[in-house]
Amino acid sequence: MKNIQNVPFNDEVDLLSYNIFNGLTEEELESLTQSMSCTLHKRGNILYHEGSRINGTYIVVKGILKVYKTGFDGKEQIIRFAKDGDLIGFRSTISDELACTTAKVVNDALLCYLPGEILTSLIKVNSEFAMSLMKLTCRELGESNKFLTDIAQKTVRERLAEVLLLLMDTFDLDEDHTLQISLTREELANMVGTATESVIRLLSEFKSDKLIELNGRKIKLINIPKLIKIGNVYI
Amino acid sequence: MKNIQNVPFNDEVDLLSYNIFNGLTEEELESLTQSMSCTLHKRGNILYHEGSRINGTYIVVKGILKVYKTGFDGKEQIIRFAKDGDLIGFRSTISDELACTTAKVVNDALLCYLPGEILTSLIKVNSEFAMSLMKLTCRELGESNKFLTDIAQKTVRERLAEVLLLLMDTFDLDEDHTLQISLTREELANMVGTATESVIRLLSEFKSDKLIELNGRKIKLINIPKLIKIGNVYI
DNA sequence: TTAAAAAAGTGATAAATGTCATAAAACATG
DNA sequence: CATGTTTTATGACATTTATCACTTTTTTAA
Hints:
Order of helices and strands of chain A: EHEEEEEHEHHHHHEEH
Radius of gyration of chain A: 19 Å
CATH topology of the largest domain in chain A: Jelly Rolls
Oligomer: homodimer
Largest sheet of chain A: 7 strands, antiparallel
Helix content of chain A: 40-55%
CATH class of the largest domain in chain A: Mainly Beta
Number of strands of chain A: 9
Distance between the termini of chain A: 45 Å
Strand content of chain A: 15-25%
Structural class of chain A: alpha+beta
Largest interface: A-B, 45 and 45 residues
Number of helices of chain A: 8
């Protein structure tokens, strides 16, 4: 299986460039680098499955992953995406539960695995790091609650507009105002929490309304203020 | 305003009975007790509003609060309930953001306020406490993601069954198999994420199907296995 | 205790969204 | 590059759920 490749060059990964590790001492950084094992993962590769036991955290050095839950009838609900600098899998490591999501590579990714014991000992030893990680988790919780409310109360149309804007914030637009991430209609539907056909119809509607332009999976945002209005998004 | 009463008897509150504080030393417990100020709150009282700045945490000694977000059109989405031993408001204190929810007293409550600096210094000083709090947050995040998926994918009927079971788990049944919490139909709707009328109709349906019995706001669960099946709830 | 307010309940109807079937287009891969 | 597979697209239709209007019941507070 060529889906995973070991990359022994831990030293080339600059942990300090991720601000979660900013508070670490030289020695802590050094020991962290020693304990990590970095791997290259191809698109489609699954890092861990919902319900499995993971005993550590992955640091995303490069690439994009989607983190999703599988509903009762097998339908995916995308919880979030992870990109450069994000941590994946630490929730279940810390809560000492089985993984409550599946993590799948969307864009080829370079990941560094950090064993759980190292993570927890770091929390115990370095309170600044503990605080950063807690801050991160609390923010994620806030976002989850926000989106929960949106799914419960907003229409599919509103949510689709919101998701497009969210993708813009997360992955930016290129010079051409096109979203820098390419998702299938089904993946969009799994973010919005709706049927694929509904996304397809609403995207064409947005297109006829001159809010976006479509070119395969490339989505160009041409009227952002209107999208904000449709999505009832206030910053 | 008689809605809030100061209760100076901090010493009567036994922090150790809440396992989040189990790892604290004698001195830490003592200083915690000194920094707390305890107050009695009447039903309907709002502890803090979404968007306000709260600089500390409340420990729920007695009573029940609902924690909710207010959607675009003013509709409440209940995120969770807090009861004896729960912490409220620490998410925004730690993430250093404005409150992302409103907390309102449902059953008269005795609350102890813990200033943010005390909380953060405790995290810094006692790594066991830091770990407990982080574990708590991570579990909450897991639940939030679970419910997000349910709202996105399950029908209102399924969600209502699930919510009844959730309330059973959270507040227990009395000897008569009746839910130990009394909510309005609107509040139930605000948990389920649906219209009040839908909850009313579905509750009567559950009643005719002999799954529950209704007596005002008292809900008696008489066929729990069937409710589990309807809600597609697996533990 | 009683008047006013809030909540519960019900029916009719509208709107939103999902499902299914099918076709065309795009993509992947031997 | 041919072909099987996946994705996108579209229409018809079914279902779910929300909304509105109204009545009855319950709760609250003067």
